[in-house]
Amino acid sequence: MWLVSQPNSVILEVKVDPNSIGQQCLEKVCEKLEIGAEADYFGLRVCSGSGPGRWVNLRNHMDPHRIPSRRLDLRVKFWVPPHLLINEPTRHQFYLHAKLDLIEGRLVVADQEVARRIIAYIAQAETGDCDPDVPTHVYEECHKIGPQGEKPDDHIEKIIEYHCQIADMRASQAEYRLLKEISKLESFGEELFFCKPVTQSNNAYNLYSHLSYHRQVEEPRARDDQEIDGGATVGCLTSGQSGGGCGCRLSTCVGVGPHGIVVYRPACNGDQDIGVEKQSIPYTAIHRAQPQRRIFQLSYVTNEGHEATLYVKMATSGQAAALYRAVTEKHAFYCCETVRTDVTEQFIRDLKGTIASIFNDSSTLGRRYVFDIRRTCREVHDRARRDAHARGSHEPRPRRRSATGAGHEESRSRSRSGSHGCVARGGGAGGAGSESLACRVCMDAPMDTLFLPCRHVVCCDICAPRCERCPLCRGEIEKLMHIFLPVEYQRSPGVIIK
């Protein structure tokens, strides 16, 4: 029996065989939550009292001796914008994790107005429409969201004003708006690896706050060889500094995000010179990455075209290996068309396995896989679309006729189970045809907007302006065109269909 905790502290009991792998446990959890088609976005994390914990390798057997009390956390491992999420239960799990990160300070919002809108969306999703005469506990829960320091006197009033402006908004729509807001944050989808143990002063909240609200030092010029001893860097209070600085006590850390890695180095020197050095290295510039005991080694190409090597000394060899795993998996997920075999087949052996391999090189004894990624971002999205289409074609939804009887309008009810089909092959008056005319994002309004230059029609006029790329081909959207589609498929002089 394994206990899996959701971000909202709801615990699920999962029964798996003693010799099962982590993927089987995750699949059972996702099946209960109706997010099985998009399970690749999620992972299981081992609870840790002094830090964020570590990810369970889902391809290896689950060892109860390495996981205390058989307790695991279900968390989002690969963050994507909300318009790429097909099923509403998946968006709900993304929302729960985002809300937890915002409240606990792992996602920092530097703009006060954006923070107020986010709090209003949380209040609308949790409590419904605003009642100014009845104070809500959500406002107090979200006190960490927004800039540090003393809040303005009219802070709560401004939140209530935003909350009243979104009256009658459904909870699912408020969750979508919140995910859209946080997807614009610079730290969206970034996983931090601190060189020193995570403490009350050395954590993500203090780092992002330090970066957002203090002066940021210009990005240092890359040298051919850089060695960063994370254990020797402790923010403002390093040995030899006479000034107290801001007392941040931050260590050097490496952030791994959707676009590359970022090295954060505290650069505070006294009370007046406060800042953080930030060095960004995109995935396209990385030549090679590998762990060597406690040192994480990264070879890359600088902006000037020179080859450089970065050495980061972590607190333990396990942290260096976890950083190497995160860089490899996120690069494969966000940047590759498919996961290569040299990633999926990479493994290590324990002592027993090493001895057994001397006599039989193909022995699986003691083999532990290094990575557990199975699909890329595009493959997960396409798989979820096909699954939704397959389920939608077998589950026709009720529809209603207009007064003239000339057209059909899809029912406004929205199922939280995510059983929405993708674009059906052919229209008609059947359930699948009516479903095929609904906007692929909100599933409420009819599709009436053409993306140019790709000429795909998948959204309504409300959702289309939110899309930066076409949800089908991921091509850049240069222009939107309002069109009129008939109820039944037929060639129209106003639309060119190829």
Automatic annotation (TrEMBL):
Spans annotated as Disordered: 383-422
Alphabetical UniProt keywords: Cell junction, Metal-binding, Zinc, Zinc-finger
A Gene Ontology molecular function term of the record: ubiquitin-protein transferase activity
Annotated Basic and acidic residues bias: 383-396
A Pfam family: FERM_M
Keyword Cytoplasm: no
Subcellular location: Cell junction
Entry GO CC: anchoring junction; cell periphery
InterPro entries noted in UniProt: Band_41_domain, FERM/acyl-CoA-bd_prot_sf, FERM_2, FERM_central, FERM_domain, FERM_N, FERM_PH-like_C, PH-like_dom_sf
GO aspect biological process, one term: neuron differentiation
Domain RING-type as annotated: residue spans: 439-474
Chain segments annotated as transmembrane: none
Record domain FERM: where: 1-338
Principal subcellular localization: other
Tagged with keyword Metal-binding: yes
Designated name of the protein: E3 ubiquitin-protein ligase MYLIP
Organism name: Bicyclus anynana
